[in-house]
Amino acid sequence: AKPEPLKIMISGAPASGKGTQCELITKKYGLVHVAAGDLLRAEIASGSENGKRAKEYMEKGQLVPNEIVATIVKERLLKPDAQENGWLLDGYPRSMSQATALMEFDFQPDVFILLEVPEGLLVERVVGRRLDPVTGRIYHLKYSPPENEEIAARLTQRFDDTEEKVKLRLRTHHQNVEAVLSLYKDVTLKVDGSVSKEEVFSQIDLALTKLFEDRKATSGTL
Ligand code: AP5
Q1: For a designed S-S bond to 31, which of 88, 90, 99, 148 qualifies (C-beta 3.0 to 4.6 A apart)?
Q2: What pLDDT digit, counting tens, does each position of 82-114 carry?
Q3: CA 173 to chain centre
Q4: Whole-angstrom Cα distance, residue 139 to residue 92?
Q5: Could you tell me if the CB of 33 is within 6 A of ligand 1?
Q6: In ligand 1, which atom is closest to the CA atom of 12?
């Protein structure tokens, strides 16, 4: 039988490197990346009423109300590609109520990755972050600079990537993180996120390779 697809959650403070690691994980493991923040930014770009409301909270670094974010995430997880290939859920759940709502729908992770980065590094990562609107890739002016002038010229910055706003986002993170961690402690993989992105990925890759091999062995495909 085909092994069960992997289901992974990734968590960590703002700018701890979740999106960066998701790029690397999906490239190797073919999972569907479901990022709450990206889904909300797409909702804002669509000009919908929900998008307008979401932006008010995001500008203040606060959690967007569940009635907006929960449905968007749940619908994305239920799409056939995520069901067939497995999912990598990024930035969700961020509160006890979001986690319990997921459990009611039986969305349980095989592993909950927690990126640990000292606070002093986070502000620098946020203010130097740039995004390529064409490829969706994440860059950093110092740590992950664009490959050429053409890309450099089109890079954009997120509206909540200022020093002032990241401090608000960090406060929200600290208020909510413990409750979520306590629910997933049996499947938590703590990763040192302060090293280079390649070194962070090798810690994750090691654990996922093992999980993947175990899956194949138990389903009899090895
Ligand atoms: P969201 O978009 O999820 O933002 P966040 O959690 O603050 O995380 P970021 O996307 O800022 O950072 P990241 O960890 O992905 O880091 P990245 O890889 O880009 O959420 C935004 C807002 O949406 C929230 O504030 C909230 O309002 C709302 N929201 C989201 N989820 C919600 C939910 N569940 N419920 C309610 N509201 C919700 O890396 C950052 C930078 O560092 C980059 O420049 C990168 O190149 C660089 N970098 C990465 N790794 C390394 C490394 N190892 N070494 C050096 N530099 C690195």
Answers
A1: 88
A2: 999 999 999 999 999 999 999 998 999 999 999
A3: 13
A4: 22
A5: no
A6: 14
